[in-house]
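Holo model, adenosine-5'-triphosphate. Inputs:
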Amino acid sequence: MIRTKHLTKRFGHITALDSVSIGIGEGVTLILGPNGGGKSTFLNLCAGTYRPTEGVIRVFGGDPWADANVRQRFGVSFDPPALPKHRTGREWLEFLAEIRGGSTSDIIEAFSLGGFLDRRISTYSAGMMKRLSIASAFVGEPELVLLDEPLVNLDFDAIPEIVGLLERFASEGLSIVVVSHIWKPFLEFADRVVVIAGGRVKHDGSVEEVASALSLI
Ligand SMILES: Nc1ncnc2c1ncn2[C@@H]1O[C@H](COP(=O)(O)OP(=O)(O)OP(=O)(O)O)[C@@H](O)[C@H]1O
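Output:
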């Protein structure tokens, strides 16, 4: 699904990602690592929002930077959320559905957005924005969603709710690549854990392999 070869991203003199060669298949992949390790850079390269400095990334066999047909097949939620502040949540979801296809009603219901969807996004709390941002990734019936810190800013009740939803979508065949510092809930159903630190892949394996190596469980 995702394949990289010597994937490198530099920002000036900073090497954020350093010659990473990895394949990520179907299922749920949890990406962990220290602050500044390169996780969000990796996700942005997968999403086609960053262009590699060197090396190659292929998502569904195509170049996510250059190929809109590739981008059509996945959804993405960034952290902090990238949302148009002067639109309502409903306008934003409808705009996405126009571009990406599919309906928004199931997504609105699944993510319990109804209570605030007709307000301007500029009036949302951080948790509301996060909920809308994650929901946005599901518009257009994607085969894969890329989620950067989906649990940040969610309250104690919302965390198990959103994790439960993601687990349900995963059990229905959706692939998920998730970067999260709140990793524990994902260990329950992740198929694979990748640790990125210092711009490189430091660990890569099943939950049992990586989590026990890092004493996470
Ligand atoms: N747009 C940018 N311009 C300049 N430097 C950047 C940019 N984005 C990331 N970096 C740098 O690249 C490195 C990797 O950052 P990245 O955001 O990918 O790490 P991360 O693992 O996601 O960190 P965190 O867990 O803190 O979110 C850091 O040194 C960061 O300062």
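The beta strands are 2-11, 14-24, 28-32, 54-59, 74-77, 144-148, 175-179, 192-197, 200-205. The longest helix spans residues 158-171.
Archived with the compound record.
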